[in-house]
Structure formats: C-alpha cells, structure tokens
Design goal:
2 copies of one chain form a homodimer. By secondary structure, the first copy, chain A, is mostly helical. Chain A is built from 4 helices and 3 strands, in the order αββαβαα. Chain B binds a DNA duplex through helix 1. Chains A, B: It is found in: Nucleus.
DNA sequence: TCGGCTATGTATAAAGA
DNA sequence: TTCTTTATACATAGCCG
C-alpha cells in the first residue's frame, strides 16, 4: 500500500554518473561525449557572448582530427584581434594546459564491418567526402613522421 | 498544516534564478557573470580536451575589451592548424553566431572512432593502403548505383 | 574583484529506441 | 548517429562580506 514502488523499484536508468576527467577509453562513449560536450561548449560560448556583449571564438578538434569552430561575430575577427593584441604585447592573458596523450589502444580493424551494400548514392558520396578528410589527416600524420616516400605513392588516392 | 514552512521560511537566499539570454543591463551583475562564466567556459574546454584527447582553443573578450584565452596544448598551435585547414578549405566546419546552425552535422562518420594520434608510421601506411581498397569499393558502389539509376530512368522513358 | 552560500537551473552519463 | 528518458552531477544568479 505504502510502498507502491517496492518490488518495482527498478529505476529505468542510473541517471548521470560521475566520471573522472581523463581520456575516455571506450570509443563509443568518447564519441558521444565529444559531440554533446562540443555542442554545450559552443552554446556556453554563445551565451557568454550574448549576456556580456563580448566577442568569443572557440576552435575544437574532433577525435578524427576534423576542426570545428564557433565565433561571435566570427572566428576570424576574434583571431585577428588576438594576433594583433599579441603583437602589441600586454593586453591579453592566457592559460596554458599541459596534457599527456593517453596511449591509444590497438585497433587494426577499421572498416572491417562496414557494409557499403545497402547505402544510397547520397550516403556513398558523403563517405567519399569524409574519406577525403581522413586521407588528409593520414597524410598529415605520415608527413609528421618525416618520411614522404611512401606517402607520395598514395597521393593518387 | 499544509504550510509547515510558513513561519520558518528561513531560506537564506532565493537560489539561482533563471535569466533571459540577452545582454545583462546591470553592470555589476554583468561583470560578475562574465568572470564566472569565463572560468566555467575554460574549464569545460579543458575537460573536453582531456576527456576526448583533442586540441581546443578559446578566446574571449572582456567587457573592458581585454582578451583572455585558453588553449590545449596552446592557443597558437590550434590557431595555426585552423588557419592552415582553412587554406586547404576541406577539413573544417564552423558555426557563425547569427547564422544557421548545424548545417554540416549530417555526416555519419562511421570511422569517427579512428584515432591517428598514436600510430606509428607503419600503421599509418597500412591504413593508407587499406583506404585505397575502400576507395575502390566506394567508387564501384557509386558506379553501380549510377548504373541502376540510369537503367531505371531509361525504363521510365 | 574575490570568495562563500543556497536553492534552483542546466548539463550530461547511461541505456534504449 | 540522433533522439528520448531518467537520475544525478555540476553550474550559477542573487546576496553577503
């Protein structure tokens, strides 16, 4: 009577859980967290800009290496001011952030379970486009290794 | 009986109030809100960087016109990448404040969970090679698709 | 400006659709 | 991946000192 929830005290979810601020190991979780937090960060930046009437610029790299940005009124205008201010010297304050990259786990599968069979033209072309980005990232990484020999042979991609 | 808190309504404060997202008129409040939110924004940026192992840069102007920034690993490195990426024109997506948002959020990124950060040269080249294969599959699929569409349109004629 | 406090608004981890 | 739901963690407006 009183304990209407007694045996059915099965909470549908655990609700938000506390997580340590360190690189998320689970790829799926990391991707989801990235998307949500990137959106929230941009939103916060937008609010700060509106509430205080100030310019703001945010640039973030995705786990895949793609760059996303938000700027009010625009990223470029803020960057210009930043660069200009840095020349003049003393009217900017910055906070650095040292961090160590966690060791990425092995993953030699990639698109093992990627099926192209059931995709529409639009999706296929979308992936073709995405692959272009991935290719650029790969090339960039390879060049970082200061060995362009092999890379050149793949430039025909 | 119902208002058990009536006489002892000793709530010290009203707690957080909801405020509209528009420029704060009261100067004092604006200054306070700016300081708090700037700190929180930087903190969020830092968390995103750590949790997802990605680079982040944030630049904000204070109500007084001073510039504050946060970057991981540094504002400059991220700006450099941003500028460089813009030259290439391909791998960056941005949102302007008053413009339409979320235009480029549509791609599925099936390899979003692919991390190139800590791979060795050999692994990178291996993936480059794999990508060659995938590209061919993609092109073939697109070709097949086009053929089907072509065939269909012919039938309809 | 800089913190501290409180009550409430908001962000978000997990899981499922 | 995107959207929804749920419960909880975290952010923060208004006040004080």
């Amino acid at each position: 009577m009183e304990n209407k929830e007694e045996e059915t005290s099965k909470k549908k979810t655990l609700g938000r859980r506390k997580i340590p601020i360190e690189k998320i190991s689970n790829k799926k979780s990391l991707q989801v967290a990235f998307s949500k937090r990137r959106g929230s960060l941009f939103k916060k930046a937008s609010e700060l800009s509106t509430l205080c009437g100030v310019q703001v610029a945010v640039i973030v790299e995705s786990p895949a290496g793609k760059l996303y940005s938000f700027g009010s009124p625009s990223v470029d205008s803020v960057i210009d001011r930043f660069e200009k201010a840095r020349e003049d010297g003393l009217n900017s304050c910055s906070e650095a952030h040292e961090e160590e990259k966690g060791v990425m786990e092995k993953s030699n599968w990639w698109w093992e379970d990627v099926f192209l069979e059931n995709l529409g033209l639009e999706e296929l072309e979308e992936r073709m486009s995405d692959m272009q980005v991935l290719k650029n990232n790969l090339l960039k990484r390879i060049q970082d290794h200061d060995d362009l020999v092999m890379a050149d042979s793949f430039l025909n991609l």
